[in-house]
């Protein structure tokens, strides 16, 4: 069985030119995990993070996210301002697996980004809607957790709204299941008719991402009452 490594990532947010933007990093295509994809700063939680956190897992995850933001982008993210968004575990069939905390944190609008051109090849500040539009056009390769996170945050008008609302929101823990619907790859989430081993093409509740060309599309319909959608609906303050 592939070991699952604890990890964390941080969605760095700023207000710039009247819009909410996030920092996305393009990983080296040669990397075994997520090579060539655009991601938020992040990585595995190491022994130094755990030692500095005094054994507190939440604190270690925040410290790791801040350390990775500095190592990958040269920016200082404050662990004290981070808000938990979600927790994702890599599907069981993958050869490299991580149990990753997703945080959101503010960053100054004039923060200077510096990448190493080794692990990270490019960095861009993008409006959340702009990032999703670029993904839909096939110009921004995203993994489903990154796409879902952007889709969930795009409804906010400003940075204060993100931090206030997400601080009081439940933190979903998700372990996707991979499948295929015809020729299309799908990632299945709790509540989907095929999540427990069913046929992704069969009728029933939908809670999944479907890859159409190079674009992920989130589907959520007819979920059982006990299952919570990963993307909230409606505009938040």
Q: Could you explain how this protein is built, in words?
A:
It is a single chain. The protein is of the alpha+beta class and about 240 residues long. About 20% of the residues lie in helices and about 35% in strands. The protein has helices at about 45-50, 55-75, 130-135, 145-155, 160-165; strands spanning about 5-15, 20-25, 40, 40-45, 85-90, 95-105, 120-125, 175, 175-180, 185-190, 205-210, 215-220. The strands form two sheets. Strands 1, 2, 3, 4, 5, 6, 7 and 8 form an eight-stranded mixed β-sheet that branches. Strands 9-10-11-12 form a four-stranded antiparallel β-sheet, covered by helices on one side. β9 (about 175-180) and β10 (about 185-190) form a beta hairpin. It is globular.
Residue runs with pLDDT of under 50 for 5 or more positions: none
* Number of distinct helices: 5
The sequence of SSEs as H and E is EEEEHHEEEHHHEEEEE
What structural category do the secondary elements indicate?
Answer: alpha+beta
Based on Cα principal axes, name the global outline.
globular
- Strand-residue fraction? 25-35%
The amount of helix comes to: 10-25%
Largest sheet: 8 strands, mixed
Radius of gyration: 17 Å
Q: Roughly what is the average pLDDT, rounded to an integer?
A: 93
Ends distance = 44 Å
User: How many DSSP-defined strands?
Assistant: 12
